[in-house]
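Encode chain A's predicted structure.
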Amino acid sequence: MLKKLLSVIVISTLSALSVFAQTNADLEMQFKKFNTLLYQLDRNYVDTVNLEKVVEKSIREMLQELDPHSVYIPEKELKKMNEPLEGNFEGIGIQFNILKDTITVVSPIPGGPSEKLGIRASDKIIKIEDEVVAGIGVTNSMVIERLRGKKGTIVNVSIKRRGENELLDYAIERDKIPIFSVDASYMGDDETGYIKINRFAAQTADEFREAVTKLKAQGMKNLILDLQGNGGGYLRAAVDIADELIDGNKLLVYTQGRTQPKQDLLAGQPGLFETGKLVVLVDEGSASASEIVSGAVQDWDRGLIVGRRTFGKGLVQKPFMLPDGSAVRMTVSRYYTPSGRCIQKPYKDGIEQYYRERFERYTSGEMFSLDSIELPDSLKFQTANNRTVYGGGGILPDVFVPFDTSESSSYFSAMVRKGIINDYALEYSDGNRRKLKKQFPDMVAFKAGFNVNEEMMNEMIKQAEKAKIEFVETDFIKSKNIIETRFKALLARSLYESEAFYYIINDLNESYQKALKVLQDGTYSKMKLAQNKN
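Encoded structure for chain A:
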């Protein structure tokens, strides 16, 4: 066991200490020091030492000393961490919520095993393998543990469905379930398409191409690409999407590190949307791969960046497997936008401060005014058309949109935290699904024709009171519009597909509304952008 653990720490020590070591002799000395310490702990320490725990903690703290994004991943966590980027997991294929202590199907995932068997939204899972799972304090982790499993294995569930007197029994054969990274794609107006990407995963570029092709068939001439809250993912996926937007063989991004030679990543394929007006939405949650796309679009004057300053992650990680099946994702290089900007924000004050900086933007005033950001001349860069852009910590938008708190309140926040609006939307769709689908056959008809009435609002107030949320009339009046819109959007998601949620909730998305405006009011055409050149 000790020999196995030592091999792990050797690999980790070699990798981490090589950053500091100037000679092979230095590296060998540091290795011997750690090796000797582990040996002495095992032989001479007063108590029995859990060497595995000691080694894992050492690796974690070693990496934390380097930068905020180099991380250690134990073997048991590795597969789960990779699932969102690989684009699939193995299970029964449902989106669920726990409503009134009962597992409730929000929607079956298209093409998954549950949908193929006829399992429907609002179905309630009462038993799993003859074990009652309703009314026992079931948690999300308990549900995942019981329903996920290897492809080809069977899980038996019993479902309660409205209108059926008896439980319905299903034997569901688990399969690979796709995890989609394009949340929504629809026409915002007669000429403007909207695409929302939540991460940059293995299949993201293919999903994006499919969405663009669909929208172009519907008459899309302008595109709003929403990367708000997108924390990144695969570098290759970001490059592939930027290639669909930027023509020729232009430089999209380059990477370079101490031991990694400079690597230029170029546009090379004819893209699906290389002409036409383009707006990219970003905010403080847009990071890494999102910043690669928005940085390339901005540097080549291909479109407008709308929103707020992005997170500021410009470090590239590479996975290294360790002998026991665990791994480290180690920073090996930095990436730079075409103009030469490294958008990585400083991290010399430690990891805690590094992540806290995003929230300090509220207190500094940056979330409400671009003027609050200090922009030294040393961070100035020029775009292809000689517009000034800045490096040193995120992508600054071309059109700033302040964070809007005008309709928010403590009462609304409490309702969201307690799940009141979400739970009532599921409950209402469960009782009115057939009627609503008949009256509103699609999300467009639903948005135009469905109104949230006083009876629905009063029911949400009652459910909030049951959850010990005190009714505050002034807060309620202030937040009435966002409560109604959120309820309507959640109800639409339950009735149709996930993009129906964005189709309605974007009425509250200030950056989206600003993007529509700059495309229509002449702002876009006045900017020094590539397609506006004579």
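The first strand starts at residue 71 and ends at 73.
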